[in-house]
Amino acid sequence: MKTVNKLKPYESGVVLSVGSSGALRRRIIDMGVTPGAIITMKKVAPFGDPIEINVRGYSLSIRKAEAREIIIEELNKDYIGEKKYDSTKKYKSYKKK
Amino acid sequence: MIQPKNTNLTKKSKTLHKEAILKFSLIGNPNSGKTTLFNQLTGSTQYVGNWPGVTVEKKEGKSKFKKQVMKILDLPGIYSLSPYSPEEIITRNSLINDPPDAIINVVDSTNIERNLYLTTQIAEFGIPIVVALNMIDIFNKKGDTVNIKELERKFGVCVVPISASRGEGLEKLIERALEISKKKVSNYKTKSFYNSEVDYVIKKIENIISDAKHKKLSSTRWGAVKLFEDDQLILKSIKLNKSQFNKINILKNRIKTSKNVDRQVIIADQRYKYICSVCNKVVKKCDREKETFSDRIDKILTHKILAIPIFFFFIFIIFNMTFGSFGEFLKEKVAFFIDEHVTNFFINILVSAKASLWTKSLVLDGIVKGVGAAASFLPQIVILFSLLSILEDSGYMSRCAFIMDKLLRKLGLSGKSFVPLLMGFGCTVPAVMSTRTIENQKDRRLTIFVIPFMSCSAKMPIYALMVPIFFSENQPLIIFLLYLIGVLVAIFSAVVLKKTVAKGESAPFIMELPQYRMPTIKSLFMHVWERVKDFLKRAGTVLLACSIIIWFFESFNFKMQMVESSHESMLAKIAAFISPIFTPCGFGDWRASVALVAGIAAKESVVSTMAVLYNTIDTAELSKVVSNVFSKASAFSFMTFVLLYTPCIAAVSAIRQEFENTKLTFFAVIYQLVVAWVVSAFVFFVCNIFLM
Prior knowledge:
The structure holds two protein chains of two kinds. By secondary structure, chain A is an alpha+beta fold.
C-alpha cells in the first residue's frame, strides 16, 4: 500500500485511510485529508522534512512521520487540486475489497 | 454607512437603549481575513498578518449601522470546533457561554472547501449565521464564479460575497446579519450533512438529550453530533442518567467503525463529502495554469539548495538596513534634532519661567536627557519593524517555519516555534503570545522559555550606543555576533531543557502555507505605528518615571541635599552593594549596575539611565564618557549581559500569563540572570585575552 510520503513531486493519490491517533489524527482530518480526497505532492523541504502537499486546493505542510500514516492509491495523471476525477468511485472499490 | 463607533458616544447610547446593542462574533479559519474585516467594521487597527494564528485572543470593538449599535467580537481563527488547541477552546467556550446574536462566518472564497468545513460545524449551533464569502475579488479575478443563491439553499445560511480588504459588500453583510439576528430564530433549516444512516442515529440521540435539558447546550443537534463523536467535554457537561447513557451507546454502535474509520472520521468525512458535492455544482472554476504565481515564487524561496542562502540573505539585509549606514544616518539626524532643538526649547522655557536650580536639573538632566537618549534610537527600531512586518505580510514567515522545521526539531522545538522566535527580534511580548499556535504545551513552554534570548528591539539602543564607540570598523559584524550569541544561548538552553525537564515528543507540524501576497503600505504603517505608539507610551510612562527616580537618587544624598557630584549621592551608596557582583564581568562601575536594574522596567531605560548618570549634555558627549568608563572587553561583556538577562516587566508578565505557572516564571527569570552573568563573565575573560 502506498503512503503519502512515498509520492514524488507532482504525483497524486486518492486518500484511502488515515492512521495515527488522537488529537493529531483529528487535526489531519479537520484539515481536509479524508478518505476520497486527492493529495498532490508539491515538494520536500530543503532538509528532507517536512513535505508540502496540495489538498482541496490549498497548500498544507506535514512531516513525513504524519504522511506515512496516510494511505493512498496513486493516480496516473498529475492533478493539482482539480476535481475532474471521480475520486469516490475509486474509494468505493477499495472499500469493497 | 458603517461607522466605526467612538467609545464616548457608545457610552451615551448604551444608557439610552440598553437592549438595543447586538453582538456579532467573527468566526472563520486562520488567515481568512477576520481581523481585516474587524478593523473595517470597527475602525480599529488590530494586528493583521499573512500567517495562520495572528489573532490569539478575542478582541472586541463597536460599530454602528443605521443607528443600530453593534458589538463585534474577533475570535482566533480555527479549523474545527474540536477541543484540542487553545484557540479552538477559546472560540468554542465563547459560543457556548456567551452566545452572540449572530455569527459572521468568514470564509476564504479562494479556499472554499476547507473553509466551509467549519461552516458545517457552526451551522449546527443553532445561532443565526451569515457567511461572509471573503476575498471574492481575488476569486473573481481568476475567472471563477459561484452561485450564491444555490449555496445559500444547500447550506441553509445567508451568504454575502465581500472583500474585506477593499471594504466591498460590508453594508450588505451587516444588513443581513441584523435581519437574521432580529428574527431571533435560527435560519438553519435542519440541513443534514450526513447520510440517512448516520442522520437517523443523530436524530435519535437528539431526542434523548432534549429531555436532559441543559442550559449550556444551545442546540441539541450540535450536542448530539458531539456525543456521537465521543467528545469528552460535552459528555461531562451534559448530565445524563445511566439509561440515557446506555441508550446513546447502543445507538452509536449501530454505525460500524473500524480501527482507521472511527466515528470522528465518519462525521468529518461525510461533512467534506457534502461540501464537495455542493461545490461541484455551485462553484465553476475555469481552467487555469497548474502553476500559480505563488507556486513560482515558492519554487525559488523554498528551493532545495537556494532556500537556506536566501533566508540568510534576507536576515543580512535586515541587519544591514537597521544597523548599517542607513540606520546610523537616521539615528544621527534624530539625535541631532533632540540635542539641538528639544533641549534648547526646554532651556528657553525654563529660563523664561525663572525656574529654580533643581527644577532645571530635573527637566534637563532627568527628563530630556533620559527620554531623549532612548528616543534617538527610534528610527532603527522602526526600520527593523518595517522589515519584519514585510516578511510577515508576504507569507514568507510560514515558509521559514517550513524550511527550518527539521533543524528546530533537532533542538527539541518545532517549525511552528520559528515564527515566534523571529518575532522575538521585534518585541518579546507579542512573540510570547504568538506561541499559542503550538498545540503541544511542552513545546509551547520551551519556546517561550527561549524567546527572551532573541534580542528584542528595545535592547538595540544599547548596541547602537556602544558598538560605534568601541568597534567602529566593523559595526554590523559585532552586532551580528551579539545576536548570534543570543541565538546560540537559546539553542543551548532548548537542548538542555529538552533533555532534562521538558522531555517528550515534539509537537506535530501540520501547518497551512498561505498564498504569497504583496504586503500593503497600509498594513506596514499599521504595524510600525503600533510599535511607535508603544514606544511613545513607554517614553511617557516607564522611561519618564525611571529617569526622574534615577535623577532624584543621584542628585541628592541621604540628608536630602543636592550633591555636587553623583558619587556622593544616595544612589552611589546603594549601588555600591550591587556593583561588586559585576566586577568579574568587567563592569563593576556603580552606574552600569544602576542602568541594568533600571533596564528591568524597560530595556530602553538602560541607555536613558546611563545618559542621566554620566551627566552628559548630548549623545556625542555620552559616547565620550562611555568610552572612558568601559574598555572594548567590558563593553562587549556589558552588551552580552543586556542581551541575555531578564526581559522587561511587560515581557515577564506575558510569560507568566502564557506559562500559567508562577514557579516556572520565577525559574525562567533566575535562569536568565545566571546565564547572563556566566556568559558575560566568560566573554570578558576571553575578550581580555584576545584584545589586550
